Amino acid sequence: QEQLAESGGGLVQAGGSLRLSCAASGRTFEYYAMGWFRQAPGKEREFVAATSWTGKSTYYADSAKGRFTISRDNAKYTIYLQMDSLKPEDTAVYYCAADSGFRDLIASDLGEIEVWGQGTLVTVSS
Question: CB burial class (10 A; 0-12, 13-18, 19+) of residue 76?
């Protein structure tokens, strides 16, 4: 069974950067696609970025393109989300997710995603 633990959230000024981490455990992790979602106050959860289990394929939401970078280190069973040029509208709880199907993540098929982390709060001030 996969278990995910996010870290790296916090308060940052607009234009700054944060790097989120998500540590995974479980024997199936090697074959799982991984991704990040976020949920802002009063909003529904939305897709941010995803990577295949090999790390060779990535996919980004329009809001993340050019500013965010997803990566994974399978030796450490960890994925990362490097967030640059942060804006106040990036303020949200960020959730790590894992699924055996890359397509489930990039399609934002929330009902099919198998494992969720507990979330880490990112607050971007003006």
Answer: exposed
